[in-house]
Amino acid sequence: MLEPEARGMMAELVTVTGRPMVHDLRATLDAIDYVTRYGFEWRALPVDFPPHKAIYAFFLRWSRCGLPERLAGRLRGRLRVLAGRSELPAAGCVDSQTVRAAETVGAAAAATTRARN
User: Fold this and answer.
1) Would the N or C end of the chain have less CB density within 10 A of its end CB?
2) Distant-in-sequence, close-in-space partners of 27: CB < 8 Å, separation ≥ 6
3) How far apart are CA 49 and CA 28, in angstroms?
4) Sequence-separated (6 or more) residues with CB below 8 Å from residue 21
5) Residues 6+ positions from 72 with CB-CB distance below 8 Å
6) Is the pTM of this model over 0.85?
7) How far is CA 35 from CA 2, 12, 18, in A?
């Protein structure tokens, strides 16, 4: 679904001429997904995927320029539209236990809050 956009983004990344890509784009994306989803080490990739050094090099290059976040954002927007919602979320939720008190909150107020919990 995102292959045309991914190829377009990859074309933007090409800044120098050199050897053309020898590994299949889909296999590369699948290998990165495999490592990030299951938590394997790069060297533990099955032999069905391209070499781990090549996959890791693509991962680093794409991560430095924000490609995974941009693709995930576009996919999320498409899925939201298909579900009948706006492309971008309009609200958010923050759990107070995961957010530290702001610097403007006095130490006495923070201590009182901790004592109640």
Assistant:
1) C
2) 48, 49, 50
3) 7
4) none
5) none
6) no
7) 20, 25, 27
pLDDT at 108: 60
Q: What Cα–Cα distance (Å) separates residue 73 from each residue in 7, 44, 79, 87?
A: 16, 29, 10, 10
Q: Helices 3-13 and 25-38, interaxial angle, to 10°?
A: 100
pLDDT at 73: 86
pLDDT of residue 51: 92
Residues of the chain with pLDDT under 50: none
Q: Which two tokens stand for residue 22?
A: 């020898």
Take residue 40 and report the two structure tokens written for it: 């394997």
pLDDT at 104: 58
